[in-house]
Each structure stands twice: as structure tokens, then as C-alpha cells.
Design brief:
mainly alpha; Growth Hormone, Chain: A
């Protein structure tokens, strides 16, 4: 019987990995396309950055609703529908000629669909099947995003000169539509939850009252994820353009962006391993400690070697907090409304990420460089490290 229970759990893990592989690669494509699209369409970088900001905000607001859908309905049906809309909307990006078209297709339609194939629904489903190893299991699934960033960005970088940004969106969209078939087939399978101890049963006593927005711990957690998201999507949106501004070869800059995803694999797997053994605070603290160092590095030097080191080391930290969302939330609140609460945390992360993406574009258009933004990011890293240390002290015993 134990063997029969393992198979659906492994199936969930594999499919979660594949879905997040596509999600990660597709939503970070705009970072690769930023400069060629701006040059071809004669748009300012802030225009495209605003599209990314809208994408982040819309997808963020959709996450609690998506978590609720996965809690109540067949997760594979939700994922299949979201994947279909993702593929179609990203393919239609090839035909845009006006900012309004990019805003509707990428900033709204693709954003809503992306929420349905994101960490929130996958994290909830994976945690159901791996109650004793939620940290590591989610890390494995979420590592698909790093692989997607590596594989998809690497392939598109190699083909960008030949097929252009319009052809790249077409290929990516068709790939997404193709993934609908296996997801639709899985929707018909009678997959059930794995048996085992209730998730969170061996965790510390839950001190939440059922009103998360009145809970100091939850407010602190939201602040921590807001800082993380603001940093993540500033870097994801602008690192290739920054590298090219400093004279780096376009192919090398694109490949560097792709290999950030590869570096992220080590970081996210280490985070899950540590979270299952010592809790989520240590990997979170390591994440922001590394960011303090590397933001200071890129402020000190714009040499290509320094830029490369910055990008790769930041890539190592990029996914660290992602699998910890479920762990932080479940440790404090238990299983109640796990999908909704993790959706709220991820919503704040992505919403702040949208602001970070736009702030980078606006700062460049005004000042002509990213120096001010790197200074802000270094200061925020210090703030986040202090907040991580303070988080356990915000738990109110009742």
C-alpha cells in the first residue's frame, strides 16, 4: 500500500516541476526582450517596465483566489485552463504594435493565467502529498522555475537574432498550449491526498487567532516578502539591460540571465533542506546576507566580471524564499486556509515585485543608470536581514 501512495505523490511532484518550469521561463522572458522590444518599437524602458509592473500586480491579486480554487476544485482542471490561456496570450504578444496591446495581453490576460500556474497552487498541492517534507518537496518543484529560466531563456537567447522577439513569443506560446494536453488528462485521474501526519502537527503551537492581518507575525512576514519581491523583479527585469549598457555582448548577457536560473537550483534546494531540519529563518537570513554583499559589489565596480558575479550570486538567492512561504505560513497557522494565506503572502511578494520592476525603468529613464536603485537594494537587504532576526519575536502567545 505504501508503494501505491508514493506514485501519485511523485506524479504531483513531476507535474509541479514541469508547470513551474514553463511558468518561470515564460514570465521572465520580458527581461530578455526588454531592450530589443524597446529599440524596435521605439518605446521607453519605463513603458515596458510598467507592463511588467501591471503583470506583477494583477497576477499577485489573483493568487489568493487561485489558492482558493485549488483548495475547492480539481487542481489539474484549474492548471490546464490557466496553462491554455497562458500559451495563447503569450503567443499573441508577437503581434503587438502599441503599448495598450502589451498591457492587455501581458499585463492582464497573461498575468491572470500565470497566477493559475504559479507557486501558490503548486505549493499547496505538493504540501498535501508530502506533509513530512513540505520544504524539500516544494523546493524540488520550485526548482523547475530555475530550470525554466535556464532552458527557455538560453534557447531564446540563441535564437533571438534569427527569429526576433516576435518569433520568440510565438514559440513560447505554442509550447504552453502543448502542455495543456497532459494536464487535461491528469484532471481525470482520481488522485487523492497522501496519508500521514497532519501537516504542521509536529510544529510549534499555532498562536494565530484566525485574523492574519491583526497578527504581528503575519504582518512582519508580509513586509519581509515585500522587500524580497521588490528586489527580485527589479533584478529580473533589468539585469540584462544593465549588463548590455556596460558593454557586455548581447549573447553573453542573455546567457548570463539564463545561468542565473541554474544558480537558483542550488539555493532553492538548500533552502528546502534547511527548512525541514532547522526551520525557515536560517535560509532566509542567508539569502539577505548574500544580497548585502553582492549589491555592494556591483556598486563598487561595473566591470563585466563584477556584473557576472553579481548576477550569478543573486540567481542563487532568487528562489530561496519561495518554498519557505508554505513553511512559514503552516508553522504559524496550521492547515487552515493554507492556499488563501500563502496566496496572500505571494501576492504581496509579486505586487512589490511589480513596483521594483517599474522603479528600475523609471530610475533609468530619469538618471540614465541604475546606481540609485542598487543603493536602495543594498539598504533593503540590511532591513530584511534585521526583520528576519526579529520575526520570531513578533509571535504573540495567547
Amino acid at each position: 500500500m505504501a508503494g501505491l501512495r508514493v506514485r501519485p505523490a511523485l506524479l504531483v511532484l513531476v507535474i509541479g516541476f514541469v508547470v513551474l518550469l514553463y511558468n518561470g521561463g515564460s514570465r521572465f522572458t520580458m527581461g530578455l526582450m526588454l531592450r530589443p522590444m524597446a529599440d524596435d518599437l521605439d518605446w521607453g524602458r519605463s513603458t515596458l517596465s510598467l507592463t511588467v509592473t501591471l503583470f506583477m500586480i494583477v497576477s499577485a491579486l489573483a493568487l489568493p483566489f487561485t489558492g482558493r480554487l485549488v483548495d475547492r476544485f480539481n487542481a489539474w482542471t484549474v492548471l490546464a485552463f490557466a496553462m491554455f490561456v497562458s500559451g495563447v496570450s503569450i503567443a499573441l504578444m508577437r503581434g503587438i504594435d502599441a503599448p495598450a496591446e502589451a498591457i492587455v495581453l501581458y499585463g492582464i490576460v497573461f498575468a491572470l493565467a500565470s497566477a493559475g500556474t504559479s507557486i501558490t497552487p503548486i505549493g499547496v498541492v505538493v504540501s498535501r502529498y508530502f506533509p513530512d517534507r513540505a520544504g524539500l518537496a516544494n523546493s524540488i518543484a520550485i526548482s523547475g522555475m530555475g530550470v525554466g529560466q535556464l532552458m527557455i531563456i538560453l534557447v531564446l537567447t540563441q535564437q533571438l537574432a534569427a527569429i526576433g522577439w516576435r518569433g520568440s513569443f510565438t514559440v513560447l506560446g505554442l509550447a504552453g498550449v502543448a502542455l495543456v494536453v497532459p494536464l487535461a488528462l491528469l484532471a481525470a485521474l482520481p488522485v487523492t491526498r497522501a496519508h500521514g501526519r497532519r501537516a504542521g502537527a509536529a510544529m510549534p503551537v499555532v498562536t494565530a487567532t484566525g485574523r492574519p492581518f491583526a497578527d504581528p507575525y503575519f504582518i512582519g512576514l508580509l513586509a519581509l516578502y515585500a522587500v524580497c519581491g521588490f528586489q527580485d523583479f527589479f533584478v529580473a527585469t533589468h539585469v540584462v539591460a544593465y549588463a548590455r549598457d556596460q558593454g557586455m555582448d548581447p549573447l553573453l548577457a542573455g546567457n548570463l540571465y539564463a545561468f542565473m536560473g541554474l544558480m537558483g537550483l542550488g539555493g532553492v534546494l538548500l533552502a528546502g533542506y534547511l527548512a525541514d531540519r532547522v526551520g525557515p529563518l536560517l535560509p532566509t537570513a542567508l539569502c539577505f546576507a548574500v544580497r548585502i554583499v553582492i549589491f555592494m559589489l556591483v556598486l563598487a565596480s561595473d566591470h563585466p566580471v563584477a556584473i557576472g558575479a553579481f548576477a550569478l550570486l543573486y540567481g542563487m538567492t532568487f528562489w530561496i524564499t519561495a518554498p519557505l512561504t508554505v513553511v512559514f505560513t503552516r508553522n504559524h497557522f496550521g492547515d487552515a486556509k493554507l492556499g488563501t494565506l500563502t496566496g496572500i503572502v505571494t501576492m504581496v511578494h509579486h505586487g512589490a515585485g511589480g513596483l521594483g520592476a517599474y522603479a528600475g525603468g523609471a530610475a533609468f529613464d530619469v538618471g540614465g543608470d541604475y546606481v540609485l536603485m542598487f543603493q536602495v537594494m543594498a539598504a533593503l537587504s540590511v532591513l530584511a536581514l534585521a526583520l528576519t532576526w526579529a520575526l520570531p519575536r513578533l509571535v504573540v502567545n495567547r
